[in-house]
Amino acid sequence: MNILIIGHKDHGKDEVGLRLGQLLGCKYLSSSLFMCERAVLPTLAPLYGYATVKDCYDDRDNHRQEWFDLIYAYNRKSPTRTADELLAEASIYVGMRNRIEFDANLDKGNFDVVLWVDASKRKPKESHVSMELTEEDADYVVCNNGSLGDLHPQLVYYASLITTRALAKEYANTPGLIV
Q1: How many angstroms separate the CA atoms of 54 and 58, rounded?
Q2: Strand partners, 117
Q3: How does 38-53 read in b/e, with b if 16+ C-beta sit within 10 Å?
């Protein structure tokens, strides 16, 4: 199963990806970190003096629109390019923001499940300029307005739902089996 985790900045997507990956026994990757080396650092390093991927990644909040535009340009010819490359290395993709990429990836069938992480009671929402997706784009919403202790039971629940969906998909065409 390939899983996409979306939501506003600082709402806990990477934490959800990490913990869900641990529960499901699969790898997650942050698309921001993944794309920093491939598309962002080569352009922004000369402008802002970044020496490393970490320097660029750590400063991403100061240049969100530039990041959005550079990643969009990377995917312009093939809107599924980032997902295709990332999913070759991991089963959980964290952080898609672009509507065109999202729709193209769903049409291609790159993702079996989409989770939205919501921490809107404790963190601000992001501008539509750098986040074109919404809660309505997800299959499930993970409430991340409490503690990490509050988050864990939800992730156990979603991991079981995802596992059930995977099994149902795998055995859907088995004669005589009722799924």
Answers
A1: 6
A2: 7, 142
A3: bbbbeebeeeeebeee
| Phi-psi domain of 66 (left: phi exceeds 0; alpha: psi -120 through 50; beta: other) | alpha
Task: Give, in order, the Cα–Cα distances in Å from 87 to each of 14, 82, 92, 133.
Answer: 16, 8, 7, 20
Residue 177 forms part of a structural domain: no
Give kind and range of the element (H or E) at residue 7: strand 3-7
Asked whether residue 64 is assigned to any structural domain, the reply reads yes
Query: What tokens does 72 get?
Result: 């969009």
Range of the domain at 128: 3-171
Residue 87 lies in a domain: yes
Q: Quick check: is 63 in a domain?
A: yes
Q: How many structural domains does the chain have?
A: 1
Q: State if pTM tops 0.85.
A: yes
In sequence order, what are the residues at sequence separation of 6 or more whose Cβ sits closer than 8 angstroms to the Cβ of residue 155? 16, 19, 20, 23, 142
Q: What is the pLDDT along the chain (179 residues), one digit of tens a residue?
A: 899 999 998 899 999 999 999 999 999 999 999 999 999 999 999 999 999 999 999 999 899 889 989 999 999 999 999 999 999 999 999 999 899 999 999 999 999 999 999 989 988 787 777 789 999 999 999 999 988 889 999 999 999 988 887 777 766 666 665 55
